[in-house]
TrEMBL record:
Protein name listed in UniProt: Porin
Superkingdom of source: Bacteria
Entry's localization field: Cell outer membrane
Pfam families registered for this protein in UniProt: Porin_2
Gene source species: Xanthobacter aminoxidans
Protein's job: Forms passive diffusion pores that allow small molecular weight hydrophilic materials across the outer membrane.
Family per similarity comment: Belongs to the alphaproteobacteria porin family.
Amino acid sequence: MPVARAIVMRCLPCLILLGAVGGIVAGWAQGQAAAADLLSPPAAGGRVRACTAQGPGFFFIPGTDTCLRIGGYLWGEGYYNTYSAFPPNYDKTYSIATGALIIDTRTDTEYGVVRSYFETRYQWRTSDPWSDGPNTPTGKQSAQLDLRDIYVQFAGFTVGHTQSFFDFYGNANVFGTDAATIGDDTRLNLIAYTYELSRSLSTTLALEDAADRQSGILARGPSLFGPGDYQAGVGAPDVVANLKSQASWGNLQLSGALHQVSATTLDTPLATVNGGWGYALQAGAMFNLPAFGEGDTLYLQAAYAKGATSYLGLQDPSGAYDPPDAFLGAFGEVHKVSGWSATASFLHNWNERWSSALFGGYAAYDFNNTGVQASYGASGGTNLNVGGYLAFTPVKQFTIALQYDYNSNAATNYRLTPFSPAQSSVGAQQVLLFISRDF
């Protein structure tokens, strides 16, 4: 018996392989009709039914009135970048692998559709952007989890984590995790109410967590008080509103935001100075251009901000040219920074398989104080960003793209001081090989 058992155990992998081959042969012998039965959708009376009222891909969860759609995407990204302000040992090439999961549920009720939406990205990156590795300078690890959208919608309300209702363009025609163009593209926690004025016109009022909108407040005289951020913390959420029109020709949106500006005083750290409220205004339009090609679009967007610089959507990988919301004087006076930005993007579909896009933006900001200029070596700054891509889609929901973009930052009226950027201007180039599969 031990000998026989040993023979059986040694041949067990062979038996499993033979069984698998036999199963495959038997399945093939059943013919094309059986294969067609396996691939056909369940019958209408089966356990899983399509939920056509909510759109393609939705099905009823068995035993409930809730419709569910599960989807996602996989990305492979290879980057090459250069930045004139960074040390030569920083990574010029790195890669990112991304797997995303989307869960969308909807239930019809007497008060309308209750929707819950969840989108998360699981990423492995070999370096942070413009750095010497994934652990510097931001302390991130190679494996990262990005909770992109988590929200519930009911009776006009949206509650959770999602795109700011101030945003319009939001990098619509830009590929990749790290690539971006000028213009606000922010996801944060919020509560909002949207009212449908008509079938094509709606308005939204939102309270959005200001933690992701803090550009900081710096001392006007850093030689006496240091260059640290004297922000007192979040005292109130940002108030955001928009008016949006949708028509056959495209979309139009007007946005506004109020942002609280406050700081800890320089001489009495326990006291807080209320700098009032900053604000931002934005207008954006998207035009459908079927005369150029099916699915072609043109985006135009412009924004102005004072005391709320995060809404300008500046791109500064070096971090040396990021303007704060305001500067704080020794006697508690607050000097707000103002600025504007403009963005344009054109997407053209050459045919069913080939497409391309051109995008770019320009921004300028002003410190609005001569004392600040003497300390920080500039009266303000400018930001320029241009780029484009060529994409090939050999089969549906599978895309291969090559993208290039250039970004520059410059200090206005620059002079070297202990607290100024090391250079009057810097430039960056980035090349991205992007491969994606949606499902």
